[in-house]
Known about the structure:
Helices cover about 25% and strands about 40% of the residues. A four-stranded antiparallel β-sheet has the order 1-2-3-4, with no helix packed on it. Strand 3 and strand 4 form a beta hairpin. It is α+β, with helices and mostly antiparallel strands.
Amino acid sequence: MQLIPFTEAHYDLLIRWIPDQEFNYLWGGRAYHWPLDAEQISRHVTDEGVYPFLFLEQGEPAGFIELVQTKKRKFRICRVLVAQ
């Protein structure tokens, strides 16, 4: 497995992975509303202290993970999605 920076080029992929309103809420909480769109993603992932990554399995996109900085050297794992 490999982590790479999540960029604007990946927004459509993440949107396709969120199939419905319930999943959107369970995955994104109050940070995102349904339907998920590129504007919401851009606004959130560019917030200070938010570090989004795409993870690859054998070179293919396999999911998303987000780290949020809580203190100078501490991060919380947030918004993990393993794609099918």
